[in-house]
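Extended Data, panel c. Modelled sequence:
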Amino acid sequence: MLRAGIVGLPNVGKSTLFNALTTRKAEAANYPFCTIEPNVGIVTVPDARLEPLARIAKTAVRIPATFEFVDIAGLVKGASKGEGLGNKFLSHIREVDAVVQVVRCFDDKDVVHVSDALDPLADIETIATELVLADLESLGKQKERLEKLARGGQKEAKAVLAVAEKLVPHLDAGRPALTLDLTEEEKAAARGFFLLTMKPTLFACNVAEADLARADDLPLVAKVRAWAEAHSGSEAVAISAKIEAELGELSPEDAKEYLASHGVDESGVGRLIRAAYHLLGLRTYFTAGEKEARAWTIHAGDTAPQAAGVIHSDFEKGFIKAETVAYGDLVAQGSMAAAREAGVVRQEGRDYVVKDGDVMLFKFSV
């Protein structure tokens, strides 16, 4: 299962957000380094498509897609040199597939800020700098080893060394490795360096409760969004970790009423989860029958046999074909029988690349 790591400076709301995202209860307190060992929780991906599919399949069982979130210790300036919990923090980031950086966009004198000033861009730059410095140190050591191998005549080492030599000046300029323009072959080589700044990053702007309804108009949120797009080609999602934590204690009906009282109709966590899901390169296809309506997670670009293998390895090994219909077409027709009659159900083979929202029935032999 793929993992998204929640990172940020101390006291930005990471653990509070983690508690809202998952059923686990991480320790949340008003002092630095509250989180030392990473908390791990399974997150369900909100998907409005499951309910209509369940009705069509006449089943009460709905199983959403899931992935993991990891709450990682807060980082401080100097982490790349071991300050605070630096080394432990960096090692935990290496173990996740993508990063969700929580950025404090709320002012609260009762919650300590490590730099005594509310400046989300400075906070982002602090973490970006520490990750780049850690990558430069790691890449420097790997480059020395590659140079020895290249001098010994190893062709593969020479090719990988060439990628390292492209990365060093890019990182030296303070830019994340992910933004360097590389060929697919070079990207594959770069992944072998296990650089922290190669991980895709999503920004979560943590705003005050009273500001959630107008979060998109807040200057601080706008600044984070502009920075994210310009420096990492990523996006920023506004959330209120405090509201989300309170929602977790309410029934669905009360939660809806509580959100309405704050002028919003959807949980920010839902948007954040979906954004993180796609950040990881994940997509969803469905199966729907009398037993259950279920969302299955695949990678963008996966073929029909690979999608079948998510259910069971035998499905992939013995794959014959996949009866496939787009979600929108199925819902428009109201049933599989009607969809077949309308000619929108297709028989797809081994080379078919599964699209997000496909509803599939696999034919296989053992």
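The first strand starts at residue 3 and ends at 7. This feature is highlighted in the accompanying rendering.
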